[in-house]
Amino acid sequence: MKWKHFPFLIVFSLSQNSPLLAQLIPDSEDLERGTDNGTPLPTSDNDDNSLGYTGSRLRQEDFPPRIVEHPSDLIVSKGEPATLNCKAEGRPTPTIEWYKGGERVETDKDDSRSHRMLLPSGSLFFLRIVHGRKSRPDEGVYICVARNYLGEAVSHNASLEVAILRDDFRQNPSDVMVAVGEPAVMECQPPRGHPEPTISWKKDGSPLDDRDERIT
């Protein structure tokens, strides 16, 4: 950081819906006197201008991040891939990080062996969902956070749940013999699972029409 003197006034403009703007205006008094008594202004020696300065003034086109695509809730099977979407705008282009339960999510940017990948768009991609009886590292509530030097933006919460379906039916249907015209009941209870499984019936390989008044 170095300081330079110029016969200019720096004027800041700030409103609720606009970013901080800075403008340099010649100081008429200094120009008339021909002296250099301007307010010292900061300049940056950083090549990438990551602090948002160009020469001795703030970049007027910069603005803080905002989320333009929020992640949505997901229910996915164990071992399957999944994606939590997130997209943000801002200038400079914001960096995006993900958090689960308040803890920062480790991705391939931190460890190349990670099964979670931070995509260029900012979305979080899971090569496979890891879920076991004792360890459930991927299930939980996620947010994405976009940041640049002007501030940060936080997405809506998005939950990732792992779908589970046991192998065995709790009750299988059995043969029933009834007289013509009499009602018949075929009982069935699906396997336990999350979300709760639903049941559909087939007869001779074809789905039954639930609009048939004889079937309830």
TrEMBL record:
Q: Which Gene Ontology terms of cellular component type are present?
A: axon; plasma membrane
Check the record and name the InterPro entries matching this protein. Answer: Ig-like_dom, Ig-like_dom_sf, Ig-like_fold, Ig_I-set, Ig_sub, Ig_sub2
Using the record, list the residue span of the signal peptide; answer none if the entry has no such feature: 1-22
Q: Which Gene3D superfamilies match?
A: Immunoglobulins
Annotated SMART domains: IG, IGc2
**Region of interest (Disordered), residue spans:** 26-57, 188-216
Q: Which residues form the Ig-like domain?
A: 65-161, 167-216
Know the name of this protein?
Roundabout homolog 1-like
Q: Which organism is it from?
A: Phascolarctos cinereus (Koala)
